[in-house]
């Protein structure tokens, strides 16, 4: 007797962190299409009691309410939603905001590369179509461009732009292998996610989307998060370089980085030493070359390393090769579910 194999229908879960979005959240939920099977509303200790508001006014059977006992920040709220969705067997986790900036109608576009197996993580890119950029406030435009450049160094995804875009979709198997408890809980979490994904060698793709701004209120203050972003990018860059080029593997790029850095530092120190301690004595051609040649050689080696690093971004999706159950998974959280 022939056995028929029943194809598994991927379970799509939507995670929506909620903090003072009661004016928009019901409209966002109504716009989530039938391709999504679960909707997790994360009440991040919201002063407006978003969880109670949704529970009282929403009859959608897909909705689950997760209440954080304390305010964990937007990243912490998303991680709480991931843990809940993983426990209930979701296959793909989509994250959107509850303020209406991220159209739920685009979910099918975000999950498409995950369903066909070409990517492990998809994120929005508001800069893809330059005609849509005009709707973005100038300060946000400049800030996102600067953060995108810094993120390329720290995450290793040189072909990814708009790293702070929070419209994302991730393979559940990949999310289960991430150290959720160590991912930044505040505004840096989207960028920190990219760094963590790179340590898994996950494939990340950009999904073009329009920049939309209405009457929603942004709680992000550049002056408050500058230090967090600067420290986070610096830390992640150092970790990524050590993990990828010295701990996991030792390649020609490792030698280029090490030798290039030593030559640049040595030449610069020698040049300053000669200039500071012999300001009145003109330097000979040989002295100048002893300072300039190591700097030039070091710069060439560092540029060669940079080209190598740009071409080293993951190209083959990893989720199909990951075990179903990770060795260590953190599914605990300070939450209550209803």
From TrEMBL:
One Pfam family, short name: Glycos_transf_2
CDD domains: DPM_DPG-synthase_like
InterPro entries, A to Z: Glyco_trans_2-like, Glycosyltransferase_2, Nucleotide-diphossugar_trans
UniProtKB keywords: Membrane, Transferase, Transmembrane, Transmembrane helix
GO MF terms held by the record: transferase activity
Ranges where the Glycosyltransferase 2-like domain occurs: 14-175
TM stretches of this protein: 257-276, 288-308
Name of the molecule in the record: Glycosyltransferase, GT2 family
């Amino acid at each position: 007797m022939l056995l028929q194999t029943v194809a598994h229908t991927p379970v799509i879960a939507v995670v929506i962190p909620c903090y003072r979005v009661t004016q928009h959240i019901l409209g966002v939920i109504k716009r989530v299409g039938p391709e999504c099977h679960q909707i997790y509303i994360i009440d991040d200790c919201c002063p407006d009691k978003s969880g109670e508001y949704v529970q009282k006014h929403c009859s959608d059977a897909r909705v689950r309410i997760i209440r954080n006992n304390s305010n964990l920040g937007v990243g912490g709220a998303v991680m709480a939603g991931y843990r809940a969705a993983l426990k209930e067997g979701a296959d793909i986790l989509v994250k959107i905001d509850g303020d209406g900036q991220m159209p739920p109608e685009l979910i099918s576009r975000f999950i498409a590369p995950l369903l066909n197996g070409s990517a492990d993580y998809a994120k929005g890119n508001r800069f893809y179509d330059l005609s849509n950029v005009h709707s973005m406030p100038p300060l946000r435009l400049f800030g996102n461009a600067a953060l995108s450049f810094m993120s390329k160094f720290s995450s290793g995804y040189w072909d990814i732009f708009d790293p702070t875009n929070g419209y994302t979709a991730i393979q559940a198997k990949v999310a289960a292998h991430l150290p959720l408890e160590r991912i930044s809980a505040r505004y840096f979490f989207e960028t920190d996610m990219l760094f963590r994904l790179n340590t898994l060698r996950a494939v990340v793709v950009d999904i073009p989307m329009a920049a939309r701004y209405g009457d929603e209120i942004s709680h992000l203050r550049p002056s408050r998060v500058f230090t967090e972003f600067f420290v986070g990018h610096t830390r992640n860059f150092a970790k990524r370089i050590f993990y990828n080029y010295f701990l996991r593997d030792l390649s020609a790029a490792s030698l280029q980085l090490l030798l290039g850095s030593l030559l640049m530092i040595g030449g610069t120190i020698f040049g300053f030493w000669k200039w500071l301690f012999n300001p009145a004595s003109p330097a000979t051609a040989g002295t100048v070359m002893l300072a300039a040649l190591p700097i030039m050689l070091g710069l060439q080696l560092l540029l060669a390393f940079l080209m190598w690093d740009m071409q080293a971004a993951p190209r083959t999706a990893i989720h199909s090769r990951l075990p179903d159950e990770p060795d260590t998974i953190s599914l605990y959280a300070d939450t209550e579910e209803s």
